[in-house]
Specification:
mainly alpha
């Protein structure tokens, strides 16, 4: 489709090359021109910072490439991290630094979506098999499952430590719940049976 568009309307944007003829951006336009046998329009750039080069690539791909959900969240995370490296970390109440809102504007998403993507990217980084997920909600479900698993493991460890320390593990209270619960520490009840 892109090759046909370039053939009928012309190549509006040139591809970008460095002085050693390495492609900086415009890979799809280049491929379309080669496929259609069209002469490629190119522009050259002088020395380009590798961070800026990666940023251009990520930005272009986030807008045009069909990523899997795992690839997309990792790309958003990498782009945000590159921008923070360039501009510094934003600190609440102070001017300067790169914000989540700026990343959201850059990739055309809401701030909440970017936060969600960054959380999913952390899960995909920790568990690379999540990169194969075909929908973001599959990554979210896996994240929630891992959180429940971590809570269970922490509970088991707490239980095992209590056994080792010979600590009283259970205490039963029988009576009117209102006065009994009023004297107990918050979060100390595992089950209330009426």
């Amino acid at each position: 489709e892109l090759a046909e568009s370039i053939r009928t309307k012309g190549q509006i944007h040139p591809i970008l090359l460095d002085r050693e003829n390495n492609l900086v951006c415009g890979g799809r336009r280049l491929a379309a021109c080669i496929t259609a046998g069209i002469n490629v329009k190119a522009a050259y750039t002088d020395e380009i910072d590798p961070l800026v080069l990666r940023e251009l690539e990520l930005e272009e791909n986030l807008r045009r490439k069909a990523f899997t959900p795992g690839e997309e969240v990792l790309a958003v995370q990498e782009l945000h991290t590159l921008k923070v490296k360039q501009h510094g970390q934003a600190v609440s109440g102070q001017k300067g630094g790169w914000t989540l809102d700026q990343t959201a504007a850059l990739v055309g998403k809401t701030r909440g979506s970017v936060i969600s993507d960054l959380q999913m990217a952390a899960a995909v980084t920790a568990f690379p098999e999540l990169k194969k997920a075909t929908k973001k909600n599959a990554i979210t479900r896996a994240m929630k499952g891992m959180e429940r698993l971590q809570e269970s493991i922490a509970g088991i460890e707490k239980h095992e430590n209590a056994i080792k320390a010979n600590v009283e593990r259970y205490k039963l209270y029988n009576g009117d719940s209102r006065p009994v619960m009023a004297g107990l520490a918050t979060g100390s009840i595992d089950i209330l049976l009426t």
